[in-house]
Structure formats: structure tokens, C-alpha cells
Design goal:
The protein has helices at about 15-20, 45-55, and strands spanning about 1-5, 25-30, 35, 60-65. With about 70 residues, the protein is α+β, with helices and mostly antiparallel strands. The longest helix is centred in the last third of the chain and has 10 residues, at about 45-55.
Length: about 70
Amino acid sequence: MTRVLVVDWPSCKGRGLCHELLPEAIDLDDWGYPVVTSTVSDQLLVNARKAMRACPTLALHLVSERT
């Protein structure tokens, strides 16, 4: 099972907290909005969930994709 972070663009305000909490999987573009750079491995799962809960607009979601 592959886990992917998805950004709810209408909700995202580009504060960058997700990048601070999960720099292994999220970069920021020139305007401070998140760019998801990788899937979420088992090693990153705890931090990915922390980043989701910490988002001030709840714009980050973890989606499981079956392969």
C-alpha cells in the first residue's frame, strides 16, 4: 500500500508548517506553498500524521493507494 500526501488547495494558506514538520516529503514553492516530493514511507508515517494535525487550515491529507 502506498501512502500519498494531498493538499487541499482552496484551504491551504501557504504557512509552511507542514514543511517544517516533514521536510523529507514536502518542499515549499517560491510563494511558500507546499510541494509534495515523495510518498510517505513507514518511517515517515508518524511525522506525516503530525503535520496533518498541525496544519492550521487542515489542508493536508494522507491518502492510501492500493497498488
